[in-house]
Amino acid sequence: MTTDTRAAAAPIAPESAPRGMILALASAVLAFSMMQTLLVPALPVFAADLGIDAATAGWLLTAYLLSGAVAAPVIGSLGDRYGHRRVLMIAMLVFVAGAALAGLGTALPVILAGRVLQGSATASFPLAVAIVRGRMVGRDQAVAIGWLSGTLGLGAGLALVVGGAVTEIANWPWLFGIGGLLGLASVLLVARFVPASAPGRPAPQDLAGIALLTLVLLPLLLVISQGARWGWLSWPTLALAALTLVALIALIAVERRVAQPLIAPELVTNRALAATNLLTLFLGFVPYLFYVGLPVLLQAGAGGQIGHGLGVTATGAALLPGAVLVFLGGRFTPALLARISGRAVAGLALAVMLVGSLGIACWPGSLGAIIGFFCLIGLGNGIGFAVIAELIAGHADRAGLGAALGFNGVLRTVGSAFGTPVTTLVLTAVGVSALGSPGEGTFRALFLLASAVSLVGVFAAWLIPARRR
User: Fold this and answer.
1) What is the rounded distance in angstroms from the CA atom of residue 323 to the CA atom of residue 382?
2) Shortest CA distance to 422 belongs to which of 262, 220, 257, 128?
């Protein structure tokens, strides 16, 4: 190893950790996280302009998340092999290209293709955390991960405000323009402030694992999103469900035999990593029930069974405090980890989300209650994302950290991807009025579902072995 390589790989002392590096990495995470929900306020506009129904328009969200679920472990593994900084910049350039394609597209297939390319940015968070773990130590490392975790949730909430304002003032192509500019800015900042990292040893890519992971996720999402329309016992639904099961069995068999698997066995056999990854599914799923469901509730006309009659921009403003609390939750987490164990912090995060979910389920007709309890959901989510990153980094092998965080990103993204179709299913099939609009019972059912998942998460947190951080 040369002197330059050793210098590039050496951690930075706490007193000299550059703030510019944190800003650069956070900018990449912000671009990814905002594009998760930036299109949510504009979905009715997409449906009208493209001549599609609401369920089909929802694939503008699902395509991004599905692509990211497959891309995250692949790109994370590439980062371990060829250098995290280099791979992060390439991933963000692909994200920018996807934004340009989608923004210029006039047909749904072209826009979906752009969204698939944008999914490469899902790997920004695991790559950023891997860079931080390799370049910083001590409290600076914990603080940096807190910033990145907070930004991950802040961007998703902030995008609801920005997306609503842009949709009312301009048109949907501008949404992709904003995403593209954020992605380009992140590339420039990473090039300027993030030092090059030493690459690992190149190894063959697990192409069979990538293909089988796609075959697991795509039909499963189709079943969730289209099952109610097709019929749960119809042949397309049953055939896709069978395909998912067969692909999952094949994926497990292949990954056990591949020398360099896409999903390392210890990620599901190691108790700490498996339990942490399970919690990640819940942390990805629960917020999306609110990201998609609350705008419907807040914008419903006062003349219906329930609703607050807010405009798109006002809806975003009502949800903004919750987004800010996501960021603050990530910033609070290092202090919590200094006092109590990681599993206790994870349980606390899900418990706070449980209280927030129950509060909104009990008072869906109160705007003040919605804003206040959504803040609790944001706070718990921010704490949860930060402690998950710390737990994964603390238990995974350093050489495979990017892949481990990438797989964790898969589960977070899968949870989020399920949130959109599940919310749509509840809003269209539970307690709707004779006119087809959701009633108070519909929203209660949706938010009680969030409460139930959060409660399961509280108990699941105690599956993580006790280990004071």
Assistant:
1) 9
2) 220
